[in-house]
Design brief:
Number of helices: 3
Helix content: 25-40%
Number of strands: 5
Radius of gyration: 15 Å
Order of helices and strands: HEEEHEEH
Distance between the termini: 38 Å
Oligomer: single chain
Strand content: 15-25%
């Protein structure tokens, strides 16, 4: 059964691996759990694009500790941005650092799969760099 409610790249990927998303989420995200350690939310974005998102770490409550982590994330992101499409962002509630990567609306299922693979590798690299176990 074709997943017509999702962008072509994502529905093709889901069909290829015979994956069926769980119940429809309010935000429209499809949740993929990869290698048992990586939870990736594939969220709809403007113009049909997809945003892959994963939580990296919880932010501390102490302002100085919080600022130190955000500075470290900004520095790492700046050093990686020429070679990597992933970017750290602060969650809407301000309590977490999330990693995001955009996948264009016209991506093929193969391009989506490569992008997803790169994103999962990036999550692992960020966890190592931020000392997240």
């Amino acid at each position: 059964m074709k997943m017509d409610r999702y962008p072509t790249a994502l529905s093709g990927f889901l069909d290829r691996y015979q994956l069926r998303p769980g119940a429809q989420r309010v935000d429209g995200a499809v949740v993929l759990t990869l290698d048992r350690d990586y939870r990736v939310y594939c969220r709809p974005a403007p113009h049909g694009d997809l945003v892959m998102e994963s939580r990296l770490l919880d932010l501390p409550v102490v302002p100085a500790d919080r600022e130190a982590i955000l500075r470290e994330c900004a520095t790492i992101s700046w050093l990686r941005m020429q070679r990597h499409a992933d970017v750290p962002v602060v969650s809407p509630d301000g309590g977490h650092v999330l990693l995001q990567q955009r996948c264009p609306a016209d991506a093929t299922p193969d391009e989506f799969e490569r992008s997803l693979e790169n994103f999962v590798h990036a999550i692992g690299e960020w966890r190592l760099l931020m000392k997240v176990l």
